[in-house]
Amino acid sequence: MPDAVPTVPSPTPAATAPGRLLQVRRVYAEPAALTSTRGREVLARFPAAEVVEVDSHWRIPELHGNEGNVERWVRVKTETLVLGVKKSLTARPNGRSADWIAPSTANGCAMACAYCYVPRQKGYANPITVFTNIEQITGYLRRHVARQGVKAEPDQCDPVSWVYDIGENSDCSVDALVSDNVADLVATFRELPTAKASFATKYVNRQLLDLDPRGRTRVRFSVMPDADARVVDVRTSRVAERVAAVDDFVAAGYEVHLNLSPVILRDGWEADWAALLRQLDDVLGPAAKAQAAAEVIMLTHNRDLHAVNLGWHPRAEELLWRPELQQPKRSQNGQWNVRYRNDVKRAGVERLRALVAAHAPWLRIRYAF
Ligand code: SF4
After folding, report:
1. Which among 104, 316, 331, 356 is least surrounded, fewest beta carbons within 10 Å?
2. What is the rounded distance in angstroms from the CA atom of residue 87 to the CA atom of residue 33?
3. Which residues contact 186 (CB under 8 A, 6 or more apart)?
4. Is 224 in the pocket of ligand 1 (CB under 6 A)?
């Protein structure tokens, strides 16, 4: 249980500068990852880090047990990396945001959103694990794309391309601070005219602007009203910075979509979302608007996460935990998730659609969930 209630790290721009987000002092590494080319490249970026060999990147007991102590687990996120080899390579069908979920090239995250659903397999801190067998992963993806042939019919993921989510278990913008895996994925999809990579992000990494994606990578900047993000998006780039980056990423050759997510229902949410949509309308240029589309994702929370968050960030729980509006649902992995009740959710989605139509009519909603 929590042994301290420290202050929440402020998500100021300075706090999200690469040097603040990651100051790697220890790298846990599987032997095969350590001797791989990618593994050696990662270590070269952090030459002062101590290397600790581990049999399996899944079994690192030292990383567990920081629940409720935000200072300790943020320190683990900042100071620790894990290098491993991705064993099972499969692309899972999705059909909602992407046609396929690509095999991960990383898991874990250096940021700390209070609602994060990325599974915490390496303790609550869940620092970044880099998978070093990137050539196997990109080879697998090329073959998988080839097997699909040309997409026969438009779907909600994309009218013509097969879309592969490359960031299900991490934030690719931050992963790119650690290794060239994201650069290699962007380069792979650049050569695949029938497919597209896609990832959601809450971090603005301007190094990605140099990767020449030629339209084959979709970046989905997640946005929410700043008043919510200041409470629940911990260590991320500020929302205004994400919005300000959209035109630059479009100019650099990315397709840029927006994730309106998570939508958190609270007093005043409609006015704040309307203001955010007007901000998008003011800031984005014609090229960005012409290609924009959005996913609307209503908040999903989790009972265990609620209990942990109460220990370090009760203010977030005032926003996230609303039992009078929510219903529990057992997830596939046996966890109790909580979602807005069907009627509440339906009304929220309809209201948000109306706000988009009123304030950002150029923003096509690809799907709402
Ligand atoms: S940026 Fe994404 S992966 Fe990282 S903590 Fe936030 S929700 Fe989780």
Report:
1. 331
2. 12
3. 197, 208, 211, 212, 213, 216, 217
4. no
CA distance 13 to 238: 7
pTM of the model: 0.94
Is the minimum distance from the CB of 171 to ligand 1 under 6 angstroms?
A: yes
Residue 2 has a pLDDT of 31
Residue 201 Cα to ligand 1 midpoint, Å, equals 8
**Amino acid identity for residue 110 in this structure:** A
**Ligand 1 close to Cβ of residue 109 (< 6 A):** yes
- Report the atom number in ligand 1 closest to the C-alpha of 171: 3
Pocket test for ligand 1, best of 77, 113, 117, 238 (most atoms within 8 A of CB): 113
Please, are residues 303 and 336 in contact by the beta-carbon 8 Å criterion?
yes
Atom 8, ligand 1: residue with shortest CA distance: 116
The amino acid at 363: L
Among candidate residues 240, 317, 225, the one with its CA nearest the CA of residue 271: 225
Dihedral sign (CA 49, 65, 179, 105)? positive
Low-confidence ranges of the chain (pLDDT < 70): 1-18, 119
Q: Which residue out of 74, 109, 236 has the highest number of ligand 1 atoms within 8 Å of its CB and is therefore the one to mutate?
A: 109
| Domains in the chain: ranges and CATH | 18-368 (3.80.30.30)
Give the pLDDT score at 269.
98
Q: Does the Cβ of 118 fall within 6 Å of ligand 1?
A: yes
To the nearest whole percent, how much of the chain has pLDDT over 90? 83
Look up residue 195 and give its amino acid.
A
Asked whether 202 lines ligand 1 (CB < 6 A), one says: yes
Cα–Cα distance measured from residue 263 to residue 231, given in angstroms and rounded to the nearest whole number:
14
Residue closest to 293 by CA, chosen among 260, 263, 257: 257
Q: How far apart are CA 123 and CA 272, in angstroms?
A: 34
